[in-house]
Amino acid sequence: MLSVVSKGETVAGIIYDPMGNDWVIAEKGSGAWMCSADGSQSQMNVVPAPELSQMVGIANTGYFDGDVRRRLLNNLADVRLFTSYRCAAHEYRTFCGGHMHFLMYNKLMPWDHLAGTLISQEAGAYAARFDGSPYLPHHTSGGLLLAPNEETWELLREKIFTV
Question: Whole-model pTM above 0.85?
Answer without folding.
Answer: yes
